[in-house]
Structures are given as C-alpha cells and as structure tokens.
Amino acid sequence: MTEQTFTYEARGQVLVIHLPKELDHHNCRNLRYETDLLFSENYINKVVFDFSKTQFMDSSGIGVLLNRYKQMAGSGGKVTLYGVNAQVGRVLAIGGIHRLMEHFDSKEAAIAG
Amino acid sequence: MERFRMELESRSKNEEFARVVVAVFISRLDPTLEELNDVKTAVSEAVTNAEIHGYQGAEGIIQVEVEIEGRELTVKIRDKGIGISNVEEARQPMFTTDKSGERSGMGFSFMEAFMDQVTVESSPGQGTLVVMKKKIGR
After folding, report:
1. CATH classification of the domain holding B72
2. Distance between CA atoms of A103 and A100, rounded to whole angstroms?
3. How close, in Å, is residue A110 to chain B by CA atoms?
C-alpha cells in the first residue's frame, strides 16, 4: 500500500528523480517533502526528471516541475528532462515548460546537458 | 444519446479512477489516442479542483456525468463544496489559492486547452459545476 511513488538517484551533485506512471495530484503529494529533505542534506545543483515510465500527466505535474525549477534557479542550478512521450510532451508544452527545461533523449544526455 | 453518471468520494486516489472510467466510456466513439488523453487530462483537472478546492481535502461527493450525442461529448463534473466567489479570476492562468507553491494554477487553462468549450457555474456555499464539451473524430 505504501509503495514508493518516486525513486531518487544521486549522481554527484545531480539528483535524478524517477517519476511514476501517472503524474497527478494524488501521486505528487509526497514529492515536496521528499525533495526538500534531499536538498537540505545534499548539495544538489541539478535536478533531472525521468519521464520514461510516465504515461499520463496533468497540471499537478507542472506545479511540481515549476517548484523544483524555482528552487534550482534560486541557487544557480538547473533542471533537465528525459524520456518524454507524446501526451506528456503536449502537457509540458501547454504548461510552458519547454522554455524552462531542456529535453533530452537519454538519461546520460540529461545529466550532462 | 448515450450517457452515464457516477458518484465518487472526494479522495485523491479517485482522480485516476474518474479519468480512466470516462476514457473507457468514450472509447465507443473510436477517439484517437490524443483525443483520449485530452479528455483524461481535462477530467483529471476538474476532479482535482473539486477535491482540493471545492471540498478543501475534506469529505464530499463528486458527481461525474458523461453524455455522447453523435460525435459530441459532454462531461459534467459537479461538487457541493465551498464554491468559487470569482469564477473569472479563478479561470485566469496561474491563479491559485494554494500557499505551498506546488500547485501551478493551470487547471482551468488545461481544461480550456484540451476541450472545445468549458463553462463554470459556481457560487459560494453552493458548489461548482464544470461542463466541458469536445467533438471527437473530426
């Protein structure tokens, strides 16, 4: 029942956040608490969102991305994405995310980018 | 005309249930994957609004009604929550009453982007009715 929605992977100063299949308000509830904890305990200057398993996303996902972007931008950091499918891509475009976060095809590229 | 109606408890895990049930119902119109996803996103937005704004996370019933007339789809999402005092303001992109910063304020903008027509009837203490229309298969 308490299966973890997000999994986190640290690569030096980069935090990779693996997103769930359905990125809606229900699934986004714990993200803020979890990332705030990780940011407070580690020096992170880049967040990479992994959309490769994500099939659905609504504006709750946009809120989560924007807030992480603000946190990173505030400390001179960066946010990148990879693995975005067509539905998610449309939602990201309408949410204005394309202008703020670069999209990559692979995890390695997103970490390096 | 074909229609169905369901009542859901206002709980966050019902957001997915609502959008999936609506998607299954409208699959008889043979929609494209994009149309299906558009409708799912709009339903998710309206149900999430009912739950976190209308009922403020407390208990309540969300009614979902779907009608198909020819190729025209109508989705009605109704709650009996606190209502919206200024609908025009609430519909502005980025407008949110949320203090945490985690909510984008794009719910109504998304409904408008993914459906052909969105109307909102609401008054304080009376709840909110969102009616969304979309032509499937053009």
Report:
1. 3.30.565.10
2. 10
3. 23
B:6-45 residues touching chain A, CB 8 A cutoff: 12-13, 15-16, 19, 33-34, 37, 40-41, 44-45
Q: At which residue do the structure tokens 């609502």 appear?
A: B18
d(CA B78, CA B120): 10
Name the nearest CA neighbour of B25 among B12, B10, B40. B40
Residue type, B137: G
> What CA dihedral angle connects B106, B108, B109 and B115, to 10 degrees?
140
**Residues of chain A found within 8 Å of residue B113, distances taken between Cβ atoms:** 94
Q: Which domains does chain A have, with CATH numbers?
A: 7-112 (3.30.750.24)
Q: Answer whether B129's CB lies under 8 Å from B120's CB.
A: yes
The closest CB to that of A94, out of B52, B103, B113, belongs to B113
Kindly report, residue by residue over A67-107, the tens digit of the pLDDT.
999 999 998 999 999 999 999 999 999 999 988 999 999 99
Q: Taking residues B42-63, what's their average pLDDT?
A: 97
Give the residue numbers spanning the domain of B94.
2-135
pLDDT score of A2: 58
Q: Is A34 in a helix, a strand, or coil?
A: helix
- B19-48: per-residue pLDDT in tens? 999 999 999 999 999 999 999 999 999 999
Q: How many domains does chain B have?
A: 1
Compute the distance between CA of residue A20 and CA of residue A40 in angstroms, rounded to an integer. 23
Do A58 and B110 make contact, defined as CB atoms within 8 angstroms? Answer: yes
